[in-house]
Amino acid sequence: xxxxxxxxxxxxxxxxxxxxxxxxxxxxxxxxxxxxxxxxxxxxxxxxxxxxxxxxxxxxxxxxxxxxxxxxxxxxxxxxxxxxxxxxxxxxxxxxxxxxxxxxxxxxxxxxxxxxxxxxxxxxxxxxxxxxxxxxxxxxxxxxxxxxxxxxxxxxxxxxxxxxxxxxxxxxxxxxxxxxxxxxxxxxxxxxxxxxxxxxxxxxxxxxxxxxxxxxxxxxxxxxxxxxxxxxxxxxxxxxxxxxxxxxx
Length: 249
Ligand SMILES: Nc1ncnc2c1ncn2[C@@H]1O[C@H](COP(=O)(O)OS(=O)(=O)O)[C@@H](OP(=O)(O)O)[C@H]1O
Prior knowledge:
Distance between the termini: 8 Å
Organism: Anabas testudineus
Number of domains: 2
Family: Belongs to the sulfotransferase 1 family.
Radius of gyration: 19 Å
InterPro entries: NST/OST, P-loop_NTPase, Sulfotransferase_dom
Pfam family, one: Sulfotransfer_1
EC number: 2.8.2.-
Bound molecules: 3'-phosphate-adenosine-5'-phosphate sulfate
Largest sheet: 4 strands, parallel
């Protein structure tokens, strides 16, 4: 597999949050996140259908109170992390499984803001995001940002601190407290992939949709070899950029 990286700031990332102090049971991390946005200055979001999977975080509604009775208000903020990457790289699986973590608030659909809807402006983009409490990480995934030349300067103009999670293959994990483990999954033999036992906001098992985990056509070994030869130099370039040899064959 190959990837041409057009992001000058692309990182196969992630921030170490190991020394952050848990703020409460489900806000185990996050204070180490750089924020360029004035969280107090963000508009308190209006209710509405933004495709963000509202209610998916049903255990954590808009208003929360801590043990001293102080309230936290959930607001809509611009994302602090974007999942981008190669097509069919497993970006949906990464997002769906990450959002099991209570410190993650993720938009369910792909907003395609930086590549298709940029003219709508940042307020529109923010209104698409799910509400989040201070300390929660807001993220969205639009793999196509990875291959559209106009995206990097636009992301940079929004925030120089936004984290890019580039899925090329076997994505590594965020520096989150370990909450999501194999006990959250079961292997669905028919699908041939792990599925969630209990997705966010539901008690029913859930596999990713039918466009994920499709039956693949068998490919002539000669064609496979030609593809490998073709991608080899591109992979080498990518290893150099990423500073890591992934050893893809
Ligand atoms: N748990 C689970 N369930 C289903 N599918 C899984 C899972 N984990 C990884 N995958 C792989 O994810 C591939 C789809 O990748 P993306 O979500 O990035 O696709 S897309 O580019 O956004 O359309 C999808 O590609 P296909 O097998 O070609 O359908 C899968 O190989």
